[in-house]
Amino acid sequence: MNIYIESFKTFFRIGIFTLGGGYAMIPLIEEEVVNKHKWVSREELLDLIAIAQSCPGVFAINIAIFIGYKLRRVSGAIATSLGTALPSFLIILAIAIFFKQFEDNRVIAAMFRGIRPAVVALIAVPTFRMAQRAKITWTNCWIPIACALSIWALGVSPIYIILIAAIGGYVYGMYIKPTE
User: Fold this and answer.
1) In whole angstroms, what is the distance from residue 84 CA to residue 109 CA?
2) What's the rounded Cα separation, in Å, for the pair 67 and 30?
3) Integer CA distances (angstroms), 89 to 26, 64, 95, 119, 147, in order
4) Which of 117, 107, 134, 135 has its CA nearest to residue 50?
5) End-to-end CA distance of the chain
6) For the segment 2-47, what is each residue's pLDDT rounded down to a tens digit?
7) Are 101 and 30 within 8 A, CB to CB?
8) pLDDT at position 125, please?
9) How far is Cα 157 from Cα 163, in angstroms, rounded to an integer?
10) Which of 25, 52, 100, 169 has a CA positioned 20 to 30 A from the CA of residue 110?
């Protein structure tokens, strides 16, 4: 099958079945892109996720663009990003058209209350998987915890965290890491 159609369909399917934003897409992206199609390796996906998080814009679109670009440059990036964005656009359009009819519906409100815990789990699972792949252990788990607390409790800008992490990673890689 045509790679453009296949990548569009894959990311359209990912976009349809994802609640909770881009981070909730990670398990689906991994299943489709790494396991099923083998377009990227697990290590490449982890690197692409880190880059997508660091770039401005929507995480889901960023990761789709990077994978599409790896497949077929600009035209591949267009196919995957359209596939990712189109389901959300269509769902939001439908909600906008019909929202007034369901605004005060108790059943719909209850459904959204039920979805919230599931969304938290959808975001937590890929976070723990990424931590395992990034080799975060009990001895170095203080780093992401300190970063998260700095941002949340102290109001430190995530930009400073990224800069400090980049400098720390460079220093560790160049001067501290034991040679093998």
Assistant:
1) 26
2) 11
3) 20, 16, 10, 19, 33
4) 134
5) 44
6) 999 999 999 999 998 877 677 788 889 999 999 999 999 999 999 9
7) no
8) 83
9) 10
10) 25
- Which amino acid is present at 73? R
Token pair in block for residue 8: 């569009």
d(CA 97, CA 91) in angstroms, rounded, equals 10
Task: Work out the pLDDT band at 179, boundaries 50, 70, 90.
Answer: low
Residue for token pair 């059943």: 107
CA distance 62 to 51: 9
> Identity (one letter) of the amino acid at 101?
Q
Smallest CA-to-CA distance from 49 within 32, 65, 71 is with: 65
DSSP state of 18: -
Record the tokens describing residue 105, joined without a space: 């519906």
Does residue 130 have a pLDDT over 70? yes
DSSP letters, 84-141, are HHHHHHHHHHHHHHHHHHHTT-HHHHHHHHHHHHHHHHHHHHHHHHHHHHTT--TTTT
CA 164 vs. chain centroid, Å, equals 22
Q: Are 60 and 25 in contact (CB under 8 A)?
A: yes
